[in-house]
Design goal:
This protein has a 5-stranded mixed beta sheet with strand order 2-4-5-7-6. The N terminus is likely disordered. With 348 residues, it is an alpha+beta fold. It contains 10 helices and 7 strands. It has 3 domains: 129 residues; 56 residues, Orthogonal Bundle (Helix Hairpins); 142 residues, Histidine kinase-like ATPase, C-terminal domain (Heat Shock Protein 90). β6 and β7 form a beta hairpin. The structure holds adenosine-5'-triphosphate and magnesium ion (MG). Adenosine-5'-triphosphate binds next to α8 and α10.
Length: 348
């Protein structure tokens, strides 16, 4: 499967590329600025020595951000700009020149030393990331297999009875259908996470989509006697992919049901706010601690024994593909509030 071939840290690296590029240019410009200061100052003045010490900053920043290779490239730029200065001021005497050349040697040692520690740190981080990924992969695979196994056993058992002429076909069909749908949901969750979201937008009334999502979750809620309360503005129509938005809401509401106490109340609202449509889903569960709040959109993160941890990452993917945003609030009084905002002006 496609999602198995990448691990979380990789995505992050590509999104940081423009920042790294900017930093690279900042480093180059700062080296040039320091060099200009060098060329303008009197070669025997204290200022000149001070400016020379400033070169350690771009080397350090390059090493921290780009490792040994970055530090060496930075040093090469420094040498390229500074060595002509040594030749121009050759007349200042051998002691002065020797001090400058020794300083260049220290730059090299500093670049190699700092780069080495940063590279090692990076390697350890990547190794940890890989280990975490492989561990999560094992957990996800066993969790997916476990989730698929129960409805599958039920389907095989019922079909086996029917094939032996036992049982009531009409009574079994709804159960078979329900089990098959359960399996379908698991398969779609994995697929939704693995492939890029393809939106097929159409102008739809949001409150209808929300009501449909609530209906889809009603049966799950019944087991805990959950009460659904809704306050929906029925005048909000947006260009959205109704199927995907419904899937996202089903995931959020399912989480709320799982977190709710018996006979808990889940409140769902839809309002216009600052030209946007704002959907909130609140529950009376235990809320989320800081760590969970920080990590819940991370793929494979789950605090549940049978959770795949793909629910919220899929929700985020769907909402962001619509140009919207999702946020969480977990007040100290308890409960969790998920807010999804979808833009009115978004043209697809
Ligand atoms: N309403 C909520 N209240 C408390 N914690 C929540 C709530 N919603 C999500 N979480 C936390 O966020 C985690 C990630 O949620 P997510 O939906 O991504 O995965 P999951 O529910 O564990 O598994 P699944 O893939 O079956 O949905 C959950 O394990 C849970 O700890
Ligand atoms: Mg979930």
């Amino acid at each position: 499967m496609k999602f198995l071939s990448s691990f979380p840290g990789q995505e992050l690296e590509t999104t940081k590329a423009p920042v790294r590029q900017k930093l690279f240019w900042v480093i180059i410009v700062s080296i040039l600025a320091i060099t200009i200061l060098q060329y303008q100052s009197d070669s025997s003045s204290k200022f000149h020595e001070l400016y020379r010490e400033l070169y350690y900053f771009p080397i350090l920043v390059s090493a921290l951000r780009f490792g040994t290779r970055g530090a060496l490239v930075c040093l090469a730029v420094i040498l390229f700009t500074y060595i002509p200065y040594i030749f121009i001021t050759w007349h200042t005497g051998w002691a002065e020149q020797a001090a400058r050349i020794i300083e260049l040697f220290f730059y090299l040692l500093f670049a190699l030393g700092a780069g080495y520690f940063v590279d090692r740190e990076q390697q350890i981080k990547q190794e940890l990331e890989r280990t975490r990924f492989v561990t999560s992969l094992g957990r996800i695979t066993s969790s997916i297999v476990h989730d698929l196994k129960n409805p599958l056993i039920s389907i095989i058992g019922l079909l086996d009875r029917l094939s032996r002429g036992k049982g009531d076909c009409r009574a079994y069909v709804p159960v078979l259908l329900q089990d098959a749908k359960k399996m379908e949901r698991i398969v779609y969750d994995v697929l939704d996470f693995a492939r890029p979201v393809q939106i097929k937008p159409e102008l739809r009334n949001l409150h209808e989509i929300i009501l449909s999502a609530i209906e889809m979750c009603r049966e799950k809620g019944q087991k805990k006697e959950i009460k659904f309360q809704s306050d929906l503005d029925d005048s909000i129509a947006l260009n959205v992919d109704a199927f995907l938005i419904e899937r996202a809401l089903v995931n959020v509401i399912s989480n709320s049901i799982e977190a709710s106490p018996e006979q808990g109340v889940i409140t769902i609202t839809l309002k216009k706010k600052d030209g946007m449509a704002s959907i909130t889903v609140s529950d009376q569960g235990p809320g989320m601690d800081r760590e969970t709040m920080k990590r819940c959109f991370e793929p494979y993160f789950s605090t549940k024994s049978s959770g795949t941890g793909l629910g919220l990452p899929i929700v985020k993917k769907i909402v962001e593909a619509h140009g919207g945003a999702i946020s969480i609030d977990s007040p100290p009084s308890g409960g969790t509030v998920f807010t999804i905002t979808l833009s009115d002006q978004k043209t697809f």
